[in-house]
Amino acid sequence: MYTNDEGARPMDDRQRHEQRTLAVAETVERIRRIEDGGAIDRDKLARIKAALGELAARSDLFPLEDFPPPESGAERNNALYRLSEDDDHRFALYAQVSSGSTHTPAHDHTTWAVIVGLQGEELNRLYERSEDGGVREVGQHVVGPGAGIAFMPDDLHSIHIEEGPPVLNFHMYGLALEQLHGRRYYDRKNHDWKHFPASSGIRPAPAP
Question: What DSSP letter does each residue of 107-148 carry, written as one string?
């Protein structure tokens, strides 16, 4: 059962959708003001992460039933739902849900990125480029409910989710994922950097 802010009465699907749409719009507008057309830096990213953390605190607006993972046996075990994207494809916010084991190679984004958790845990391994042209792990960070991590365009990370209950996170980017044609990932087996194709198959935000 879902409740409004005061907890006085349950929310139906339409009320939840309306409140979610409003909360997302207010958060994205706040993030636009933080970025303010200037160069992004880690201080701004920290403030963007805090804004998304406040949105994640409204977990009642983002139940898993509204963001179902792919069905068993699907080609991918994770799905992206578009929550907001400007007309020029900037300030793109997604809800990503993963069910089952998920592991990505080390990769960059070519734009700023912020991940904040809603449900479950996601391990991020952090890297720097090594002298031999590969990567060296320099840290780890767990994204969980209300906790997040932020990346500059050239930062490197990989994502690791183990078998278990579905994991639901916010992913926000300075430019929409379909527009990120220059990303690269490290192919550890072949000791080579390869093109990371722009994402496709992103689902629309759920409607009541």
Answer: B--SS-EEEEEEES-EEEEEEEE-TTSSEEEEEEEEE-BT-E
Buried b (16+ CB within 10 A) or exposed e, 170-196: bbbbbbbbebbeebbbbeeeeeebeeb
User: pLDDT by residue (tens digit) across 80-136?
Assistant: 999 999 999 999 999 999 988 889 999 999 999 999 999 999 999 999 999 999 999
Ramachandran area for residue 164 (φ above 0: left; ψ -120 to 50: alpha; else beta): left
End-to-end CA distance of the chain: 15
The full set of domains in the chain, from first to last, is 2-204 (2.60.120.10)
| DSSP output for 69-106 | PPPTT-S-SEEEEEEE--TTSEEEEEEEEE-S-EE---
Token pair for 83: 């929550």
Closest by CA position to 79, among listed 202, 175, 179: 202
Task: Say which amino acid occupies 183.
Answer: R
Task: Find how far residue 5's CA is from the centre of its chain.
Answer: 25
Evaluate the CA torsion angle 106, 111, 114, 120 in order and state its sign: negative
Two tokens, residue 91: 């300030």
pTM for this predicted structure: 0.92
From the list 172, 182, 204, the residue with the least C-alpha distance to 44 is 172
